Amino acid sequence: MSAVDVLIRLVYLAAAACFVIGLHLMNSPGTARRGNRVSGLGMAAAVAVTLVLLIDSGTVTTTGWIVLGAGILIGSIAGLYSARAVPMTAMPQLVSLFNAVGGGAAALVGMHDFLRFGGAGGTLTMTATVAVTLDVLIGAVAFSGSLVASGKLQGWIPGHPMLFPGRAVLNAALAVVIVAAAGLLIAGRAGGPALAVLVLAALVLGVLIVLAIGGADMPVVVSLLNACTGVAVAMAGFVIGNTMLIIAGALVGASGGILTKLMADAMNRSLTAILIGGFGTGDDAGGRSTGGEGVQTIEADDAAIRLAYAARVIIVPGYGLAAAQAQHELREFAGILEGGGVRVDYAIHPVAGRMPGHMNVLLAEAKVPYSQMKEMAEVNPEFPRADVALVIGANDVTNPAARRPGTAISGMPILDVDRAGTVIVIKRSMGHGYAGIDNELYTDSRTRMFLADAKSALESLTAAVKTLVR
Questions:
Q1: What is the pLDDT of residue 453?
Q2: Which of 77, 129, 276, 468 sits between 20 and 30 A of 289, alpha carbons compared?
Q3: CA torsion 214→219→222→228, rounded to 10°?
């Protein structure tokens, strides 16, 4: 083994350690930034020594280096621009887009190697052929599914489940086609045509699966597709014999799979039920009404009095806050309350927002202290001791209907906001949430509805509270 080989293996080992440490640091909002930096350092080192490996092998032509350099340059510029230009509220759809890029790239690696070395008389072993088949299949599903998920999150595709007659039959037919094409590839028959059929069927299947899933389940879908991309990358590593790809892909696949299970549990829904689709209504623009009987409304001045003279306020942010891009207004408002002696905490439901951790990142961008972000298990016992629970754009995750059987969200863990002394709900209208059912919180005797856009409501509250805490 040459000195270059030893160096490459040592750097790969160090990079893998950085990935593991980075994932561990991402367990807490307070250390998540450092975890990103550590993981990024590991990836930069892995890419650098891979380039050294290519130089040492001498197998890359001048044209190859030009293409490689152009790809690195374009990808780096696109990534840097996306990270700086895309607002934090649009981060879920950007993550879905990145998932698509990863899955598509892994599938292309598998397709290239099969067309170059596979087929009748090829040099691919049976193990490598199986890895290629799995790589192409999972990567293609992750690619098309992630694009659809990104479109749903961006609003380009309706968020409600898109179902049509014969969907189950078509999905079953596609599954049969995929199994047949995969069998032909592994058996070394049909070659390129079987690969083309496999890719096309997997792409269509990815689209159909995600189209049928409603917006309420999108956090789980994003996490699952991330796991699929990781598995596809690991398979690509087996195909080209790169241990770093295998390790990185396996870590992403495993962590994404664990997160998918945790998110499904947080919604009290099985992964099978989520993938079958048809649940929920998508993002309600506010046109429908829950009736309004028994609903008590409140204006900014009255709400400001209750908030300014409270000893403790627990804020419950939801997707409505993110959609209005009102995180900075919320932080300013909370700062004024704190200046007046009010204790303020933030209750974060596991599926708040559009992806795992979305709300934590959104609040961190607005400089909300990590110590004030409380997870559901930690904050639920505190609601009875809160004078006011301020709900901003959250719906299903606060619905007491989850505590009794016979509803669409029965058994779903919720934030116990109805146990606070007073509940103030900021919402655009009395429209339904993703589950498509009435929120029983809104007719509770302790609840007051402040019907307004999150940003304008917080601006009004800020102005009113300022006059009380001077």
A1: 92
A2: 276
A3: -100
> Which residues are CB-neighbours of 338 under 8 A, at least 6 positions away?
344
d(CA 388, CA 19): 42
Strand arrangement, sheet containing 447-451:
373-375, 343-348, 312-317, 388-392, 422-427, 447-451
On whether the CB atoms of residues 34 and 374 are closer than 8 A, the answer is: no
* Model pLDDT, residue 270: 81
Q: Give pLDDT, residue 274.
A: 84
User: What would the two tokens of residue 423 be?
Assistant: 């509940």
Q: Write down the pLDDT at residue 435.
A: 66
What's the Cα-to-Cα distance from 304 to each of 337, 344, 386, 422, 467, rounded to whole Å? 10, 14, 16, 13, 9
Q: What are phi and psi of 403, to 5 degrees?
A: -85, -10
pLDDT of residue 126: 84
Q: Which residues of 427-437 are buried (b: 16+ CB within 10 A; e: fewer)?
A: bbebbbbbbbb
- Which of the following is catalytic: 396, 416, 418, 438? 396
Residue-wise over 389-404: b if at least 16 C-beta within 10 A, else e? bbbbbbbbbbbbbbbe
Q: Give the pLDDT of residue 286.
A: 45
Any idea what the Cα angle at residue 123 is, between residues 118 and 126, rounded to 5°? 75
Which parts of the chain sit beneath pLDDT 50?
284-290
Residue 288: per-residue pLDDT: 46
Rg of the chain over Cα atoms, rounded to whole angstroms, equals: 25
Is 135 considered catalytic here? Answer: no
- Domains of the chain as residue ranges with CATH: 1-85 (no CATH), 89-283 (no CATH), 300-469 (3.40.50.1220)
Provide the terminal-to-terminal Cα distance of the chain, rounded to the nearest Å: 74
